[in-house]
Amino acid sequence: MSLIRHHVAGAEAGAGERTGQVWNPATGEVVGEVAYASATETEGAIAAAKAALPGWRATGLVRRADVFFRLRHLLVERQDELAAIITREHGKVLSDAKGEISRGIENVEFAAGLVHHLKGEHSEQVARGVDVHSTKQPVGVVGCITPFNFPVMVPLWMAASAIACGNTVVLKPSEKDPSASLFLASLFEEAGLPAGVLNVVHGDKVAVDTILDSPDVRAVSFVGSTPVARAIYERGTANGKRVQALGGAKNHMIVMPDADLDAAADAAVSAAYGSAGERCMAISVLVPVGEETADALVAKVAERMATLTIGDGTDPASEMGPLITREHRDRVASYVTGAEAEGATVVVDGTTQEFEGDGFFVGTSLVDHVKPGMKVYEDEIFGPVLSVVRASSYDDAVALVNANAFANGTAIFTRDGGTARAFEMDIEVGMVGVNVPLPVPIGAYSFGGWKSSLFGDSHIYGPESIHFYTRSKVVTTRWPDASESQIDLGFPSNH
User: Fold this and answer.
1) Secondary structure element (H or E) that encloses residue 96, with its range
2) pTM of this prediction?
């Protein structure tokens, strides 16, 4: 069985003294072992990134941009290989894997514009003979800790921006599907990135804690669950690091009585069950306004669920694959089996669906008459379970969303422009869709939620990533005539 090792300073590394199993979720078979980095091995990757920093920072911006133009070409050219790696270790269907790669490429394209993004400002003659200019300089070594659900997209969201800004990176991907990160590292270096600029270490809390505690790591980006995001943020900032930690979500989709219910039902099914619900932007709560709207919408959603094909992600007929692990599948199922005891109505019970083989499959579930306080509502399930919370009015629906601890994404379906505009103003959520169920911003904007969905001040990728991965420096210059020099103990004045 192959050992998936680390990638440090352009070469394989790691003794593999501690390892974990990597599974194919569609078959339930072990497809490899991944080395878990020790503290010493992680420190070695950090040292490699630190050693590569001066040379990469000194590399001209146009030459840096060339790396990203070539990387984009390689990602497009070899997307089939990369998608196959994602599907084998994560389980998502190939079309979904290619969609993930496409969204990652968006940030590569954004990063290729680094000559523009890293421009400073200049003001001349702010006082007699005095000019002021600002620059954006890299923060240094950056730690990127990424989740299992997007093993290509999220690393590209982080590493592309960090590297474009002149930083070097230690990437710690999920140990559940680690191979895609190594493929990315090889493509970066094939595109011309010097060895040591992007290093990959696999593992668990040992590697993460080493990154968080190292004085040589100046900034940390993280995507994962809210409890871990909070812990990452607290430990990283306590060690003086700049930290952005994106946490969990409970995304609501409000459907007004005037909405196109067929379009809304299509959107709800797509957004709830795509990628088996294992995405932080999945719609997990459907909020129809009015009983008539609710009854009709629940019926339409259930009707569409019956047509979904669940199976191995390599099968072109499959629309949804398995969950990432057997334990996670059982956890997701427990929310459905326990919902009726809490007073909800299970309209479609996906836990009873049977599948051939030993893969980590579960069917799609629809739970109606859910209320705040129920576990199926309060917890981030991260699986193919859609809850329906009925609202009596627009105001009640908005109040429901705003009272939730999570504030990652939300959507409203309506034909009324005034309602849509009011929703944009009223809702306290970081990403908002109007007749768009998954409002993931394009690469020219930034991604991130509010409240317990984000710890830190900067969202991920796009313009805010440039701010996060750089430090501003302001330089004031004066070239006075020597005859004008004099002692002045007063506070400097520009007048």
Assistant:
1) helix 94-111
2) 0.95
